[in-house]
Design a protein that fits this description.
Shape: flat
Oligomer: single chain
Length: 121
């Protein structure tokens, strides 16, 4: 019986992290005084995406189809909840002086995940 290869999660993780560092560098050029907000915004987007990827690809194969579908829903809920918790913690604990830099970096990293297919090739 043939098995499908696992998706290259490690490759995605590394390339997405390198692109995240480039985005943080560009955002630092635009907002030089907002390094902490830029890093927090990037991590708020990056951490839940990686948790989602790990949870979704825990199961593999046709026999695990039911578990795979369940994990998609669970992983999406965990990703959404973790994102909300991280935003709440960021706005309560850090009190960002420039919330535009935090939200812009968050949006840029989210858009980066949509372009992940071209990063892997």
């Amino acid at each position: 019986m043939a098995q499908l290869p696992r998706p290259p999660l490690a490759k995605w993780l590394i390339k997405q992290f390198l692109a995240l560092v480039i985005i943080c560098g560009l955002a630092l050029i635009v907002w030089p005084d907002s390094l902490l907000e830029i890093i927090i915004g990037a991590m708020i987007a990056y951490i839940p995406q990686q948790v989602f990827s790990y949870l979704v690809f825990m199961y593999q194969g046709a026999r695990q189809q039911v578990n795979l579908v369940k994990m998609f829903f669970i992983a999406e809920g965990v990703k959404f909840g973790l994102t909300v918790v991280l935003f709440v913690l960021a706005f309560i604990l850090v009190q960002p002086s420039n919330p535009i830099s935090l939200l812009s970096t968050y949006a840029a990293v989210i858009l980066l995940s949509w372009l992940n297919f071209w990063l892997v090739k």
